Amino acid sequence: MIKRTLKQLADMAGGTLVHGDDNLLIQGVSKDTRTLQEGNLYVPLIGESFDGHQFVEDAVSKGAAASLWQSDHENRPSGVPLILVDDTLVALQQLAKAYRSQLSVRIIGITGSNGKTTTKDMTASVLATTYKVHKTLGNYNNHIGLPLTLLQLEEDTEVAVLEMGMSGRGEIRFLSELAEPEIVLITNIGEAHLLQLGSREEIARAKTEILAGLQQDGTLVYNGDEPLIEKVLPELKAQGGMNATRYHRVRFGANQSNDLYPLNTRMDAVGTHFSVQRFDGVSFYIPLLGFHNVINALAAVAVGIHFAIPAATIAQGLKACVMTSMRIELLKAPSGLTILNDAYNASPTSMKAALSLLEEMQDYNRKIVVLGDMLELGEQEEEFHKEIGRMLNPQKVDRVYVFGKLAQHIAEQAANKYPAGRVHSFDDKNRLAQAVASYVGPDDVVLVKGSRGMKLEQVVSLLQQLK
User: Are residues 117 and 187 in the same domain?
Assistant: First the structure.
């Protein structure tokens, strides 16, 4: 984490030290008094329903060595070392950018509609075989989280793998320009944020903004199966939306026209085996199920190649990867029931991938799906849900359970193909979980998937208790 004197922090944040010892050593930055550590600089951020300035004295009582203070706020606490700034959020971002410029760390920026976190985890695991690596923790991938992540870096961190999220245009541009990555990676272009942006093409434009801060002679790693990426790239350059006039491209994907594509994909009970056309005699394995995760793994392979890591070592890193929770976790109930927990988020793209995974899985008696609403899809939300319903195949998925108003459209379409009694709709999660529990047996597998707002992990929790 950042370790600087109070005066150095004031200069880096563009502020004025109004009280405190210039040489007081500050270690780390926090915006939350609940997780603050002794010696931290407290950053009182301001939101729609809160103002962190109210907690400055509490922060100091819990060990904060100093605090930022926004100049338009009165009643400064007495006896507290303060750095006066025009805007505490801008100061946090400026402090992070200044700290990043003082480090020799090499940065990878990752974005995409789906698979960002999975790809981040695999990329960090590959790099950790050879380098000291830091990766974005949790959902620290926005205009607040990314600066805090940069400030968490140790001075000797060699590589940082940073996830970059967004809800609208301009946000990824800002994050990329703040981080100045050596490599940028785009996993795919899906339907998330259609409500805000209106079209997949506009989403592609927003995602390719990650090139804005790319270093000269940097590398763009992207999903070559997605034509929209290459379609919008010339626009970014024509509009002067990137620093690098020269950069390299590496394409990964399922198609053999890509620079990296998979061969011989095979799943076992808990993971997926595959090979890569570029490497003869090297077998790869990821502790994840599904062909879509093999595609994400190829992105991590591309980064490993860029960092001159041997193929066998890349394979070791992928095999050892520890995944962030609630992204297709394979769970076992005491009864023997297998649960695929994918309740973290949902879009049409990720929903289709999860259903394909379920269909690919062998050695199970029956396959059941529990599907919730896919949120923030804009005007096409009804049709997207109907499309999922039409995808469901009674020859491959035995029963369908849905929860939510939009998910009703999934059920309606599925009911057109399924025999009576095999498609069920609920508006109560407890009743849904009880219905599934009364049906499933020890040799069955249940996929649970929906948008985060549907909180379907509650269903997962109940199913995990089956004995």
Answer: yes
**Residue 14 belongs to domain with CATH number:** 3.40.1390.10
Q: What token pair was written down for 463?
A: 């199913």
What residues pair up with 446 in beta bridges, in sequence order?
339, 368
- CA–CA distance, 399 with 387 (Å, rounded to integer): 17
Structural domain total, the chain? 3
- Average pLDDT of the segment spanning 117-142: 94
Number of Cβ within a 10 Å radius of residue 148:
21
CA angle 222, 225, 227 (to 5 degrees): 85
List, for residues 216-248, the tens digit of each pLDDT value.
999 999 999 999 999 998 887 777 777 777 899
Measuring CA to CA, how many Å separate 142 from each of 2, 163, 164, 241, 380? 19, 8, 6, 20, 26
Q: Which amino acid is at 147?
A: P
Name the nearest CA neighbour of 335 among 248, 407, 443, 249. Answer: 443
Domain containing 356: what range?
A: 329-464
- Helix, strand, coil percentages (3-state) for the chain, rounded to 5, are 35, 20, 40
φ/ψ of residue 179, rounded to 5: -85, -25
